[in-house]
Amino acid sequence: MDMDKYIGRLLDNRYEILEVLGVGGMAVVYKARCHRLNRLVAIKILKAEYTKDEEFRRRFHAESQAVAMLSHPNIVSVYDVSTTDEADYIVMELIDGITLKQYMERKGTLNWKETLHFAIQIAKALDHAHSRGIIHRDIKPHNVMVLKNGSVKVTDFGIARVMSESNTLTKEALGSVHYISPEQAKGGRVDNRSDLYSLGVVMYEMATGKPPYDGESPVAVAIQHINGKATLPSMLNPNIPGGLEQIIVRSMAHDPADRYPSAGALLTDLDEFRKNPTILFDYNNPNTDMDAATRLQPPKRDVDETMPLPKTAAERTAARATPPRQRPDPQPTPAKKPARRKEVIVEDKEERSKVATIAIISCAVVALAAIILLCVALFGGGSSEELITVPNLMSQIFDENKNYGDFSVEISSKQYSADFEKGAIMDQTPKAGKKITKGDTIRVVISLGPQPEEKVMVDLSHVPQQQAENFLNAMELDLKFLPKMENSSDIEKGCVIRTDPIEGEPLEKGQTVILWISTGPQIVVADLPRVETYSQSVAEHMLTEAGFINVEIEEQESSEPKGTVLKQYPDGGTKLDVNTTIKLTISKGLPASTGPEIPPVTEPDNTVELLIPLELKEVPEVDCVLTIWNGAELVEEREVFAGTVSVELKLRGEGLVTFTAKLDDEAATTWTFQVDFTDDELGL
Predict the structure, then answer these.
(1) Cα–Cα distances in Å, from 362 out to 2, 351, 376?
(2) 4 an active-site residue?
(3) What is the pLDDT of residues 594-614, one digit of tens each?
(4) What average pLDDT does the segment 273-293 reach?
(5) What is the dihedral of CA 412, 414, 418, 423, to 10 degrees?
(6) Is the CB of residue 546 less than 8 Å from the CB of residue 527?
(7) Catalytic: which of 80, 88, 127, 138?
(8) SS3 string of 584-623?
(9) What is the value of pTM for the model shown?
(10) d(Cα 471, Cα 459) in Å, to the nearest integer?
């Protein structure tokens, strides 16, 4: 198809085609302007070679009908569907952003917080779609758009179908082969768990920087999905927390029965991990016969490699109960040679005198200690702080994500050692057996393994700047250091985030080494919107758009419609750190009546439905939410984009009805309008 033939044309005397945005398997996506509502939109037009194929046209329109059933902040909205002699097309909201794939290519491996942030939003989109009976079937980073504010929208339901149809992929493996589920690769039956597998693959790629399977051909990759043996994520990125790795592994289980049963169940674990990043899940219970971790295999290793294999989730749990490996006892010191007899006699006399003196002093000390202890017991002068005994951490493999319970562990430096394997703790302060206050910090020295013959850069992350420079200076290469400051929510202030050259690269005499030093987490403050009276979905969307992603929900019986936000904490209208947890109380309606059932009175329905073009009182400068009210009843709510002049409303009523419109932008514009439902046309 000549893609340029639509440029400049006006479809249905309404949509002016401006430019090509992208090309898919069945359609071309254009940027266009809707002259009726004066807004920019995206239009997907079926390719000419498929317009004569009824099967492709059927699938194309199935996509339109499927997406039109969905309304969620994390799913691209569909505005219009049309079939004309000119073209078959759907009109969607225009997204100002980049694909998740492009974002990953720019940033490389994402940290676990970004991975979690994107995964939660994609899972919410799937949860909504699955609740409407829609399976996406093509979840991949290319079909996820990242907006400038960090929120995401899932797009391209090009091969989505209604779940009840139970269709299988027998003709072709649709979607990208790197992300399809094993049952898709085999042409088997697909259900909502297939989407969860694909999301697991996306999470795997975000956390490790590469997909779990790759090959020279699509068939080779598909076979690997069917065999189901991928490298554990922590083998490629040891910084992945154990709980997140468990979630990825379970989502990617080869057998659908071993995966999460629903997107809601996946969201539950993602939220639990968000609240406690050190959590490890227990899937070994009667409700989840889960053994999917055994399908992810570690890669082959060279025989001379010293770094231990990262532990699986089960091994990490077991390791907590395993006592630390003790260092071998030192060899006894050889006895000194006997002194001459004359010296022994003199020393014997002096020793008797010393013993008598020490005995007198010891008695005095004991008496004084007894008096002090008695005073402490009588007058309560003791400390209320709980003391604990420092455990022996020597030879244990350091895990920055491990929860050490009664104390914390921080790296003081890293050193080469021929006696300790790479990653092991080779020294600790305080030493084992000492008493410290519960909650204190134990600082440890981490082994880099045997020193290589060639002097290369090592991993200095988490090491304080001065200790890192001291270590590099010990190489006697006259290195120069160029510190650069950078925010980090994972690395303690004053410690190294990363270096240039990176780990493993050779170092040359006189070379300049760049050290990125943490200034601690960056505090981002934003205006907390007021979301009372809105529905839960709109409220969560408004909070996400403002940057607040930590939202907790609790339900309460109320006469307000089910799903309405009754109250929020903290109150809206204040400036807060975006990491603050926002608590929303949601109405769950009134309890079901226990009295006798009274049949409803049937009255004739004289209501009329009209399509009303509503001119906005003020053109919004930012994206916001428009709500339409009939008295206290919320009739409709929708997102409107910056620059929108008017919208089309589908309203129902009888006689002359007065509505209130509220545009929730910075000015919170409110106005009223009337609709005469007795007029066959419409009346404003």
Answers:
(1) 101, 16, 21
(2) no
(3) 444 545 555 556 788 888 888
(4) 67
(5) 90
(6) yes
(7) 138
(8) EEEECCCCCCCCCCCCCCCCCCCCEEEEEEEECCCCCCCC
(9) 0.45
(10) 11
